[in-house]
Known about the structure:
The protein is 8% helix and 48% strand.
Amino acid sequence: MNTSDDLLEYPVVENFSPEVPIEIFGMGNNTKKLVAIVDTGFTGFLQIPLTVGIESNLTLWSVGSARLADGSVVKNLQCIGRIRFAGKELIGIVTLSEKGNDCLLGMQFLERLKMDFTVSPTRNRAIFKSLDSESEPLPQPLPSTIKEEEKPKAKRQKA
């Protein structure tokens, strides 16, 4: 891992999967160090194996369901967890998975982290950059290059 005051870099492993170290805290400050995959296809906060959630002594929040990439729906337990990454602590809903051994950091986590996240496949690096008040503004969307007369027109139905 390379670090500077506002930049963190982690190696990207097979299939361009960025892996980062995190700590998860349960009741009584029971701490567990994990390696999590940053999964931008996962909309949640954090997903961990059920056994890791039990070992971490997380507080049960609810029973939920999730739609997987293949379209199937699975039920899962959801807990409250505190996560430490890059010197920041965030509290969120941690999904416990009965299948698989991967820990997945999702888009809710990335959004609340308040850091830009980039994967550089040519450098095999995952890059997190701190956002602060002096950060460059986000780029504005490009104007449409389609001429007005080329845009499809909505068909009007006769009454």
